[in-house]
Amino acid sequence: MPTTTASAVCTTVGNNILLRLTSGERDVKLKALRELKNQIIGNRTKKLSFLKLGAVPAVAGILSDAVSAVDVADNDENDRIVKDIIVQSAAVLGSFACGFEAGVRAVLDAGADILIQRGCLVEEMPLLKSYMEVVDAGARSLKMIYQSKMAPKYDFLQEENMEFLLSLLNNESENVSGLGASIISHSCKTSLEQKLLFDAGVLKRLTSLLGGSLIQRDASLESIATIFKNNPEVVSQFVGPDTGRTLSCIIEIVKDRFARTRLLASLCLIVIRNASPCYLQDVGIKTKLINNLLELLDDPGRVGDEASFAFSSLIAEKEDMQKLAFEVNGVDKLYNHLQKGSLHPRRFEGILLALADMCSKLECCRSRCLSLQVLKLVVDALAHDSSDVRSAACMCLRSVSRSIKFIQNLSAGSFMNETIVIPLVRLLDDTSTAVQVAALGAISNIVVDFTTRRSTFIRLGGVKLLVQLSKSMDSTIRLNALRALRNLIFLAEDKCKEEIFMELTASLLASLICDPEPSVQEQALALVRNLVDGRINSVEYIFAEDGIILDAVGRQLRIASKAEIEIQGMYVLGNVATGKESHKEAVMDQLLLRAENKAQSCIIKFLQSNDSRLRTAAVWAVLNLTCSSSPGSSGRLVKLHDAGIVSHVKNMVNDPCLDVKLRVKTALEQFNSFDDSLASTSCLQFLTVRAVGELSHVVDPSSKIPCDSISNSCYVYVTDFCVIYSHVANSINSQCL
Question: By C-alpha distance, which of 497, 494, 480, 479 is closest to 445?
Fold first, then answer.
């Protein structure tokens, strides 16, 4: 006797149910609906099977017929069956949509969401008064639909929609009011919509629901957070003298016995504080929030998965919160969860991101992570099956690699080895763009190697991949690839520069300098700035292929409107001006060339800029062009004088920026040296300025790191975003910018 496969049995059962759904007898149809509901509840496999059999359109058709067949005046048994069909149809459609995106799409394609709203919830339908079960069933189904990102966006701008929403929120049924809150959480995205909801009195109604049932309280907290998100105006109007009691109520709910409620209350307070930092400044409240979220990590379900993301949003970019979290052993607690192994990908990702945020600013957190051997777990996560986990691991590695302790181990050779570099290089070729960008961020930190241990990265093909990514159609990838190359070439040896330049080529660099994206232009110029820093043979790179790079730099300086581009471009020319006479003359040609329809040269515009960084860069270029020990300096000074540049520099003697003021003073001394017949060979040397990308290996801007090859205790000041570094070519003198 032949056996029948499970799939065939399922198909047979499904066809039988669908056949009965088409029956002309309402009793048969009702029983089939109930059986279908029981088959698919909590079973994604069966949902998919019934989807393929066309169950959703069939049920939507039954619902439509039932809504049309409701007899307003008749309450007999026949009418009761029709109402039961409506309830069961709505329940089936809601079950298909519950946690199943394919089901949501099928329900929406069948127009069932509109049918449910019209048949169960519109006030003109008598069922609202005569059969509350219909209302609850419709509300539950629509809530399941609105939990999906695929659900249609609710238009709050239409007056009738706002009235309908308020009617839902004012309904006594927790399912109906919960539906109203779900619609807000799903559809409220803009500040205008937030303001409209606030002005309509929605927030007042939501706050009144905080004292309702568990369903109402949770739905209300989620909606309140949605209306507050990134909107300080609404927050300030809500957290006023008249509504302070509501804020206190939310603070109290943080201690609720239900884990999900505590999480939602915490998220609500986090949103308030992030939108308006002036609120919730009490250290006790902040500590309570941190402890609550760390405790929620112990929850084995979805709350535990999401708690770490809430924790990250609380401490991200906030040094005071990170310090409080460290004081309550936040790093240790996160590490303990990370150690458990076999974590759900969502939970794994969240813990890694939380550690990344904790280590983003404080050295004590980074040092603790390294002491706990967190790095080994992070490196292992770089090969995780989930792209989100891989991306989070890269972000964590990026933060931890800012540690002074990391640098010390890096210099000793215990970190900068193949166990870290190999997986990072592999991730440059990852199928996920987010992973590639995150890997580039980590690499940008690791390749800033003051001990010139870049050979491992280059040997493993890292440079080839970075250059390849710099040609990406995605501007974010181009940007981050250039930032990594910029840091890789920082203080690099001549051989390393040569290898990188051979991969990049002059034509590619020139095209990147003229990239459509201003941020890419800036990073390309910063890369060239580091490339031409150092010995004279480094300056020669900019003249390759008939000076195509120099021409691109000059062109961008004449047309750029973003100060950051102009600053990097001027430092490029300032570094080139430390070279030979021919190099200096080439810089002069670029600086004195006027853009089309411009009355003055770009350098005069830069000297007059409101941005002190740009004024400083412009004066540096003048300094290097007019060094009195250079044979052609007097002639260049005459040209600068005739162009009106010298007079502009003289007018800057009382510049409000001290750095500019000091550079101007030095420039004026150089100008005067040409008229001083007693002056002998000047001790002033050419200055080059380097830049390193957005990372930092130190705790704060006041930290100092001794720099190799620099005498007289020269130091570089570092921030999390940019390092501006200078030294004197022959180490006679040292100046730090």
Answer: 480
**Alpha-carbon gap, residue 310 to 271, rounded angstroms:** 10
pLDDT-above-70 percentage for the chain: 84
Q: Which helix (H) or strand (E) holds 147?
A: none
What average pLDDT score do residues 243-264 get? 88
Would the pTM count as exceeding 0.85?
no
CA distances (Å), origin 636, targets 56, 627, 641: 81, 10, 8
pLDDT tier at 529, thresholds 50, 70, 90: very high
Residue 282: per-residue pLDDT: 87
> Could you write out the DSSP letters of every residue in 219-279?
HHHHHHHHHHTT-HHHHHHHSSTTTHHHHHHHHHHTT-SSHHHHHHHHHHHHHHHHH-TTS
What sections of 98-190 are H helices per DSSP? Answer: 101-109, 112-116, 127-130, 132-146, 159-169, 174-187
- Cβ neighbors of 242 (< 8 A, separation 6 or more) are none
Give 181's contacts (C-beta < 8 A, 6+ positions apart). Answer: 169, 206, 209, 216, 219, 220, 222, 223
Residue located via tokens 């840091």: 487
Query: For the chain, what's the residue count?
Result: 737
For residues 135 and 127, what is the distance between their CA atoms, to the nearest angstrom?
Answer: 7
Token representation of residue 709: 């090859």
What is the average pLDDT across 31-58?
A: 91
Query: What φ, ψ does residue 293 adopt, rounded to 5°?
Result: -70, -35
CA atoms within 13 A on the CB side of 249: 16
Per-residue pLDDT at 522 exceeds 80: yes
